[in-house]
Amino acid sequence: MILKNYKTCGLEEWINARYIHSGIRTPGDLDPESVAQLFGADLVMYLGPSFADWREGGYSVIFLDRRLSDDERRAVFFHELCHPIRHVGKQMELPQLFAELQEIQAGLFQLYAAMPIYMIEGFTEHLEEAHAVQLLALEFRLPAELVERRLQQIAARLRKSEEEAEMAKDLPAIPATQIIAHSPETLKLLNKLLWLSAQKGRRVNRGK
Fold this sequence. Notes:
Order of helices and strands: HHEEEHHHHHHH
Helix content: 55-70%
Radius of gyration: 19 Å
Distance between the termini: 56 Å
Structural class: mainly alpha
Shape: globular
Number of domains: 1
Oligomer: single chain
């Protein structure tokens, strides 16, 4: 697996920059308490289902179920961390489709934050080996299922890059289109606009 052809997205680049600037460079540095502090969130261990509670411009608290195994808690943490960083509104109060969209976004955030591509590059020589998933699961202290999903996502993006490169060979030379990578703050604003739009639609429907 040749990672040099892997293209990061805007969110991924933002997470990587925050990590590197804060000295988070190896899997051993991905301690949930340190990462939570980096993003301005408190971490609470308790007996109950894991969830995030936050107020825009105010507190952010991530509650983790202490009954989970260590690797399961880490996986859940990186999922729940997305909500206070990128989302608005309480999921229980959101339209179903909008809540599902937020869960999809949290799933992608989880992959990028739990296994940054610049850390995976340190294991490039092992990625084609049969035990690659087990090795990375041990190094990143994550469930094998999450590691496998991250590797599949990387492989899919690499295939897409290869297909685009092949297509480009048959096209005339044209100026490259500048792609604007939205920051998490911009994406959060877009999420808020979508949420307000959804709320407005619900009020209109109730009035009929």
